[in-house]
Amino acid sequence: MVLLWLTRRPLPLCAVGKGGRQKAQDKAQALTTAPVTGRLLRHLPYTLASLLFSAFYNVADTLFVSHGVGDLAAAGISVVFPLTVLQGAIAQMVGAGAGAMVSPCLGQKDYRAAGRVTKSAMAFFYTTALGITCICLLFRTPLLRLFGATAEILPYARTYFTILAAGNVFSTGFSSIIRAEGRMDYSLWIWLLPTGVNLLLDWLLIYRLHLGIAGAAWATVIAQAVSFCMSVLFFTRFSCQQFRGVRADRATVGRILTLGLPTLVQMGSLSVVLVVMNGLLAPRAGTVGVAAFGYVSRLAEFALAPFSALCLAAAPIIGSSYGAGLHSRVRQTVVRTVQLGLVYAVVAVAVCYALSGALLGIFTRDPAIVQFGIYCLRRLAPALLFLPPVLTVSAYFQSVNRAKSALVTAGALPLCLCVGACLAAPLGTEAVWWAVPIAAAVCAVFCGALYARQAGKRKRWAL
Q1: Alpha carbon distance 76, 83 (integer Å)
Q2: What is the mean pLDDT of residues 9-34?
């Protein structure tokens, strides 16, 4: 709400002046003029680092609490994890949807329309965040019991949950919208600085001031507040968008949520796939198989990060170029993104085959689990070769505001994986493993055909 109020007020003289706004606009327009490959490679380190810092930011409290307070306190944080997932899901959905709308507006040089989208995203997010805070504080004990808190864990979970819920309004810095302006450096700092603050405060509040799990919660909320303040600084001083005289509206909010829904589907799809695979493996491979697959899935999260980073790097280029009517540049960006993704995929598959034992050894020294994990990893790794077209096409549809196609492509991969694994299950564990790369290949063909059909339509319209 503070951010909305600040963007509505006249900016001070030291804020975005004529020269500063022109500089910000020039940076946004570079998305439509700079060489595609160079721009992608320039964006990639920032987006990849942001993803890695985001992942580390999410586990920092657990690491400090498990060593500094104890296992029960760490279990309390795990119980509160659904709130963290809900915070992240809403923030990612709103941010991705708004970013997908802001990029074309900037490509058209319609800075007021971009400002309207951002204000609408803020209005929805802060209203929703306040509602979630009220519900969590009113029903915290029943919710924690629903999340799985036992009598021993409940006191720790209640303390952590209360503080985290109270600071819920600070749980996003709108980095997706900042990336839409081409400011990859700032979108990285909005993750890097709060992560550093969180780590420092975890150490100070837990190990020096002995505040226990409450210290971990306060460290998280204060770090989120730092991210919020950096967001305020960006949108009031550095953004090229125009906020004065524009208002949030329901139609824009609806469009943001529609475009952000594929991101929500992608965030939840991994959990669904893991549940299905564990359910299929438990009766066939036993505890060893489930444990090995759990470690392989952790490796998969890191293996997938560069693909996601590439798509995040490409999205503002695609969106801005599409808004500017540069359809050949859009196609070039899609092709380059797939090509770079394939280069990485080949390297990743080679590493998985050559170093599979060492990678599994990071997690466990149990020879049975390591051996089964090697067997699992080498059969699943080829699926990486088919992911670049799937993820890139989904990012393309979201960036050009094709909500239905984006939703279809976002849900296609988890659907193919789950259906393929279930159909292969009666044939044994070996068939389940090979069903994954086959399903990924089928999904890649489907997404490629959908993109070719859409690109063909656009070419005919241009004629």
Answers
A1: 12
A2: 55
Q: Has residue 91 been placed in a domain?
A: yes
Number of domains in the chain: 2
What is the reported pLDDT for 421? 87
- CB count within 10 Å of CB 20 equals 16
pLDDT tens digits, residue range 100-131? 899 888 888 899 999 999 999 999 999 999 99
Q: What is the mean pLDDT of the chain?
A: 83
Write the pLDDT tens digit of every residue in 131-159: 999 999 999 999 888 877 888 888 998 99
Enter the tokens of residue 155.
């006191």
Identify which of 295, 278, 294 has the alpha carbon closest to the alpha carbon of residue 362.
295
- Select the more confidently predicted residue: 243 or 77: 243
Q: Which of 193, 225, 248 is the last residue of a domain?
A: 248
Question: Percent helix, strand and coil across the chain, each rounded to 5?
Answer: 85, 0, 15
Which residue has tokens 């600040």? 6
Q: What is the pTM of this model?
A: 0.74
How many other CB atoms are there within 10 angstroms of residue 101's CB atom?
A: 27
The DSSP element (H or E) to which 105 belongs, if any, is helix 81-107
- Residue 375's nearest CA partner among 286, 439, 293 is 293
Domain of 140, in residue numbers: 2-248
**Residue whose token pair is 């500094």:** 68
- Of the three residues 248, 280, 300, the one that is the final residue of a domain is 248
Quick one: which of 379, 445, 376 has its CA closest to 416? 445
Amino acid at residue number 168: N
DSSP labels, 176-219: HHHHHTT-HHHHHHHHHHHHHHHHHHHIIIIIIS--HHHHHHHH
- How much is the pLDDT for 88? 78
Residue 209 lies in a domain: yes
Calpha distance 338→319 (Å, rounded):
17
Residue 69, classed as helix, strand or coil, is: coil
- Nearest-angstrom CA–CA distance, 374 and 120: 48
Do 191 and 265 fall into the same domain? no
Other CB atoms within a 10 A radius of the CB of residue 197 amount to 18
Instruction: Please tell me whether residues 456 and 341 are part of one structural domain.
Output: yes
Q: What is the pLDDT of residue 460?
A: 46
Contacts 24+ apart (CB under 8 A), 37-45: 37/336, 39/317, 40/310, 40/313, 40/314, 40/317, 40/333, 40/336, 40/337, 40/340, 41/340, 42/184, 43/184, 43/312, 43/313, 43/314, 43/316, 43/317, 44/309, 44/310, 44/313, 44/340
The DSSP secondary structure of 222-251, one letter per residue, reads: HHHHHHHHHHHHIIIII--S--TT----HH
Structural domain includes residue 8: yes
What pLDDT, on a 0 to 100 scale, did the predictor assign at position 13?
A: 32
